[in-house]
Amino acid sequence: MRFNTICVIGMGYIGLPTASIFASNGVQVTGIDINPDIIEGLQAGKIHIFEPGLRGLVLDAVNSGRLKISSEVNPADAFIIAVPTPFYENKNADLRAVVQASESILPHLQPGNLVILESTSPPRTTIDIVSPILEKSGLKAGDDFLLAYSPERVLPGRILRELVENPRVIGGVDLRSAEAGRDLYRQFVKGDIILTDATTAEMVKLMENTSRDINIAIANEFSRLAEAFDVDIWEAINIANLHPRVDILRPGVGVGGHCISVDPWFLVEAAPDAAQLIKTARLVNDGQPAFVAEKINQISGGLRGKQIAFLGLTFKPNVDDLRESPAVELAHHLRHSGARVTAYEPFNKDRQLPGINLTDTLEAALKNAHLIVLGVAHNQFKDLDPIKIRQMTDAVQVYDSVRAWDKAAWEGAGFAFFGLARKY
Fold first, then answer.
1. Would you give the end-to-end CA distance of the chain in angstroms?
2. Which of 66, 148, 240, 300 is the most buried (most CB within 10 A)?
3. Residue 105 CB partners (closer than 8 Å, separation 6+)
4. Is residue 213 part of a domain?
């Protein structure tokens, strides 16, 4: 099948790059968002997401006329739903944006159209939620229109490359729908395209991120045990990983982002009795910021009244995304322990966090600090010269929660150095 017009609903971390790549391949694309600031910004050439290469791609697509930004869904050959799917406080999936996006397509759905859900969702969302909404049109999924699920499987910081090169999974409500999805994405995807059914594709995405979450959880739990046994966890992991069938990941502050820290809960919600290990791993990782905060409280002799220079708030290095960030959780735990937290996040200077004083410069964060805490291993933080930092602050203690700094170098500069389960 040939798709000449596409409507992409959701101009976030996946929708905007996807729409721009389609447009750069000659497809006429309408990008939809309900946030007026995002719409006005994109129409004016302002990109609200930091992702290498994205700004130029978006500007080229908009200037060519092949990418139009709107608040209203238009008729199209294919519709892609790429809206957020966070969770409620009880960890159940919040699918309101998926429902709203599906309902916005309904008045424009025509026979032969293809609808693709890309948003990460609990199993059976495509067939139990999206399909019934669209069938209110009087058209039947698989017979009159085509419906499929195709999860994004990309790494922030490498989104544009991985959208093109990574294998793409497409699960249809029937084979014809999956094949149509293959035809749609083949316009730019160079990796393998694997066809399956919609629910399997939904579960594949959740399995990928859940397996990562479980592996990180055991690394974080090992770090807690290492603290209890006075063992350097990093040395222990390096030795253990010499075994040809062992690959222990790095411990840290926890797990963040909109995928690994969220997706496992969708499986727990869908089948709680069958997801005991998954739930336990989530609780371990969700509890890691509090564990690290308590270690910092102990080494500082109590945090009440002390000022902390907190470096890095995003969920991973060298991105601007603060969603579900364990570094943010750590900063809040430190504040609840009585500390005044002054944070510097070079990739997201405009974000406001209750109770956290965000600064525009490293120098401002270090001023009057008693303690420096490294929350995220941004490249510019990893490259800091401890001798120069010593000249910029009265702080005498440093806590590296992500093992990005050389202990000997910081101690040589006059700091008392501490880190997560570190002796060396």
1. 60
2. 148
3. 7, 9, 73, 79, 81, 115, 134
4. no
Instruction: Give how many domains the chain has, as a whole number.
Output: 2
Write down which residue in 204, 235, 265 finishes a domain.
204
Q: Looking at the structure, do residues 196 and 341 belong to the same domain, yes or no?
A: no
Three-state SS for 130? helix
Considering 154, 178, 204, which residue would you say is the last residue of a domain? Answer: 204
Residue 416's Cβ-side half-sphere holds a number of Cα atoms within 13 Å equal to 10
Is the predicted pLDDT of residue 49 greater than 90, yes or no?
no
What's the gap between Cα 98 and its chain centre? 18
Q: Distance (Å, rounded) from C-alpha 113 to C-alpha 109?
A: 7
Active site residue 205: yes
How many other C-beta atoms lie within 10 A of the C-beta of residue 178? 25
CA distances from 272 to 92, 215, 266, 269, 281 (A): 11, 20, 10, 6, 13
7 carries an active-site annotation: no
Which is it for the CA torsion 399, 400, 402, 403, positive or negative?
A: negative
- Given a cut of 90, whether residue 235 has pLDDT beyond it is yes
Question: φ and ψ at 228, to 5 degrees?
Answer: -70, -35
Q: How confident is the model over 100-119, as pLDDT tens digits?
A: 999 999 999 999 999 999 99
| Shared-domain flag, residues 41 and 160 | yes
Residue from 68, 205, 306, 316 carrying the catalytic annotation: 205
Are 171 and 293 part of one and the same domain? no
Quickly count: other Cβ atoms within 10 Å of residue 124's Cβ. 14
Structure tokens at 77: 């050959």
Structure tokens at 168: 């793409």
152 near 176, Cβ under 8 Å? no
Query: Are 314 and 374 contacting, i.e. CB atoms less than 8 angstroms apart?
Result: no
Domain containing 57 equals 5-204
Distance separating alpha carbons of residues 89 and 307, to the nearest angstrom: 30
Max CA distance (Å), the chain: 73
* Cα distance between residue 97 and residue 201, in whole Å: 20
- Model pTM score: 0.89
Contact residues for 209 (Cβ-Cβ < 8 A; gap 6+) = 120, 259, 260, 263, 264
Residue 273 pLDDT more than 80? yes
**Cα–Cα distance measured from residue 385 to residue 375, given in angstroms and rounded to the nearest whole number:** 17
